[in-house]
């Protein structure tokens, strides 16, 4: 495969009527989906040069995926926009990246309509992409709130496909279930990789635990890409409606799983292999935690195939096993760089990259996370990583989910606030959680306040929306 999506043509020819992708009761065969990709790619090649940036801003995930493959095939760069961005953020990104073409629902239809009188479509890309060419830009929130536009090459994703093939064996016989929209790189990657191997991919316009649970119950040999938070809410639905008996593989990324969650998952996914992977949008896979690895409690696993890891201090010196420092990685899956945004936590050195995550390796090479530089909170002069506090909170048997955020404090500078969701039927008090944290973290790292809520706001990628939690906390205090 020389570029992402090259296999779609051969798959369509080998079995035109095989299902390729479905969404909300609609189904596209391989032939129908590739025809849409081909038509749009031909239109793009007459309008934008190779390497041009094309913004994609669509709510329909099937439309977005067709456009994504078409942009890749045409030799251009697909920039995936979130339709729900505030107007100010969208305007800032447009000014920063200056796309010569933006595809939204209306412009997508206009491009296809314009092709009707152009005769037969070319099967061969006019601007054939090379593996080293950039093809995708995604956006994540930076440490200062400014969006970071990270750029990936065809090769970096093709290398990631190789890891998926060897570690997960996702094949044409599988049904890949994606629970959220394509704005988040986890969902986008899972859908694209599934389509490239010929699997049937089921995508959702937005995360709905009830509908996802129903899809999992009815599926055949299925693979489920999701964040631990999404899995938590889907598992709640499955406990009420019955298990998913044929789900063979659960791939989780985005946060650390609790050991209790792993045990609970076995009840609703009785035959599934549960695999956790840790990485970043800029780095793809870093570590994998599989059932066969005997991963120590609290670890995110071993280095994925082709990945080298190093723990270093702030001066760049390698640290011994057990010592905490910055996580550095080297692989063929690393990103090219930012086209906008970016922060001081990112650093390169001789092919090695760090994005500011901190952790340590044990003597056997298993990685343990401590936190991320961009989330660090300074309170009373102490540097605290919220992830460490969240891990302590969810180790309590009555806590299902937890998030730790900061709020201004005139004396300490900032203070920690823990927001928790309890397990069904659990009776947990603020005093009990404070004791639990103090025993594990000490008083200086124990949150000053504990707030209880039944559900968390989620980002489009299925993670807890920390910025929204902080804003809600601030607004509630202003009202009081």
From TrEMBL:
The keyword tRNA-binding does not apply. Residues 9-338 form the AMP-dependent synthetase/ligase domain. Residues 388-463 form the AMP-binding enzyme C-terminal domain. The keyword Ligase applies. Keywords: Ligase. InterPro entries: AMP-bd_C (IPR025110), AMP-bd_C_sf (IPR045851), AMP-binding_CS (IPR020845), AMP-dep_synth/lig_dom (IPR000873), ANL_N_sf (IPR042099). Belongs to the ATP-dependent AMP-binding enzyme family. This is AMP-binding protein. It comes from Roseibium polysiphoniae.
């Amino acid at each position: 495969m020389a570029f992402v999506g090259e296999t779609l043509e051969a798959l369509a020819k080998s079995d035109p009527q095989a299902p390729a992708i479905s969404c909300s009761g609609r189904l596209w065969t391989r032939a129908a989906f590739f025809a849409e990709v081909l038509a749009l790619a031909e239109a793009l090649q007459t309008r934008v040069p190779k390497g041009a940036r094309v913004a994609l801003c669509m709510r329909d995930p099937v439309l977005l995926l067709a456009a994504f493959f078409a942009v890749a095939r045409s030799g251009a760069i697909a920039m995936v926009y979130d339709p729900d961005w505030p107007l100010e953020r969208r305007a800032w990104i447009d000014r920063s990246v200056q796309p010569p073409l933006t595809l939204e629902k209306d412009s997508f239809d206009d491009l296809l309509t314009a092709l009707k009188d152009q005769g037969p479509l070319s099967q061969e890309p006019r601007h054939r992409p090379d593996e080293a060419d950039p093809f995708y830009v995604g956006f994540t929130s930076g440490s200062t709130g400014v969006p970071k536009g990270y750029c990936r090459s065809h090769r970096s994703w093709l290398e990631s496909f190789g890891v998926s093939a060897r570690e997960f064996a996702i094949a044409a016989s599988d049904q890949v279930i994606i629970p959220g929209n394509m704005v988040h790189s986890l969902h986008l990657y899972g859908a694209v990789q599934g389509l490239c191997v010929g699997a049937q991919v089921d995508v959702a316009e937005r995360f709905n635990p009830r509908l996802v649970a129903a899809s999992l119950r009815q599926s055949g040999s299925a693979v489920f890409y999701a964040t631990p938070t999404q899995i938590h809410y889907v598992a709640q639905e499955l406990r009420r409606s019955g298990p998913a008996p044929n789900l063979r593989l659960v791939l989780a990324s985005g946060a650390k799983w609790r050991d209790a969650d792993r045990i609970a998952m076995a009840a609703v996914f009785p035959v599934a292999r549960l695999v956790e992977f840790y990485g970043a949008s800029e780095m793809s896979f870093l570590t994998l935690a599989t059932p066969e690895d005997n991963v120590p409690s609290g670890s995110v696993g071993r280095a994925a195939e082709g990945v080298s890891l190093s723990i270093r201090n702030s001066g760049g010196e390698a640290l011994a096993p057990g010592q905490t420092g910055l996580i550095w990685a080297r692989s063929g899956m690393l990103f090219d760089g930012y086209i906008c945004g970016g922060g001081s936590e990112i650093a390169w050195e001789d092919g090695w990259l760090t994005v500011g995550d901190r952790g340590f390796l044990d003597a056997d090479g298993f990685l343990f996370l401590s936190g991320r530089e961009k989330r660090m909170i300074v309170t009373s002069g102490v540097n605290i990583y919220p992830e460490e506090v969240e891990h302590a909170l969810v180790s309590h048997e009555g806590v299902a989910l937890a998030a730790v955020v900061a709020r201004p404090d005139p004396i300490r500078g900032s203070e920690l606030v823990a927001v928790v969701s309890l397990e069904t039927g659990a009776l947990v008090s603020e005093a009990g959680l404070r004791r639990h944290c103090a025993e594990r973290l000490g008083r200086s790292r124990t949150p000053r306040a504990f707030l209880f809520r039944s559900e968390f706001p989620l980002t489009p990628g299925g993670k807890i929306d920390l910025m929204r939690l902080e804003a809600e906390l601030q607004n509630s205090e202003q009202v009081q």
